[in-house]
Task: structure prediction
Amino acid sequence: MASITPRTVLVLGGGSDIGAACVAALAGHGVRHVVLAARSPHDAVTALRSALSAADPAPAGAPEILGLAWDALDVDGAESLLDEIHEAVGVPDVVIVAVGLLGHHAGLGLTPAQVDKMVRTNFAGPAAALAAVAERLADSPGGPRSLVVLSSVAGVRPRRSNFAYGSSKAGLDAFALGLSDALADTSVRVLVVRPGFVRSSMTVGLDPAPFATNPETVGRHVGRAVLSGRSGVISVPPILGPLFSILRSLPVPLWRRIAGNR
Ligand SMILES: NC(=O)c1ccc[n+]([C@@H]2O[C@H](COP(=O)([O-])OP(=O)(O)OC[C@H]3O[C@@H](n4cnc5c(N)ncnc54)[C@H](OP(=O)(O)O)[C@@H]3O)[C@@H](O)[C@H]2O)c1
Result:
């Protein structure tokens, strides 16, 4: 496993708290440029600056941060975004896909339009961008490079309260794993990250689930895995990996009892 030097980092869904924590974890390891592709790039840049200044330990040397307007639902916009990034900073060494939409209720009661938006935001939009970025990375000389996809344990076994969100994350997760196989003979590594409940903007107002964690912890795990050139799946916290491989095989009545309404 060759290690990765993350000189240029791109975050798709650049306003994400977890995305910012991942950048903060990498920042002390040679990051010169960070590109935040976000619906509100100005806010994303401001949030990352404050995450970097609050990071412990503080990263040495502040990277240049560029915010670019991007909406994951504008599938045709992916290629022009990548052209713009290429012109500004070259080919990224690390790309973090952090787009996500949970909503405080993702079970029964969603309208067809809400389900459609959730599936396009969590799966179709990021998958389209991921496909485009993977081609660019694979076609570029040099490397190794890393594609980090923020999936979720919610996709391992969707439950009654989150089946729209969980199934859309499961789609993205499967897409990323297949993409990883397709890239096996290239210098691009795909890392699929399955966090449990993370206290971030996405979960404000929700009761934390067991093994709840915070963006910084996810960032540290992602940072370590990326720097070591790792590919495959990591769960955060790691205990959720073996736990969910048991939970996914439980008989339905037992699973429904355990999952309850959460
Ligand atoms: N928090 C958790 O408990 C948890 C657990 C497991 C996995 N995850 C996953 O981790 C990733 C990051 O989540 P987070 O916790 O950091 O939440 P977050 O801070 O809410 O980040 C999600 C980001 O997705 C962006 N986004 C939503 N729709 C978009 C669109 N159409 N185009 C571009 N960007 C869009 C949001 O942008 P705006 O700022 O413009 O809304 C937001 O910056 C997500 O993929 C999420 O599913 C989160």
User: Anything to note?
Assistant: The pocket of NAP is lined by residues 13, 15-19, 38-40, 71-73, 98-101, 121, 125, 150, 152, 195, 197-198, 200-203 (CB under 6 Å). The radius of gyration is 18 Å. The first strand starts at residue 8 and ends at 12.
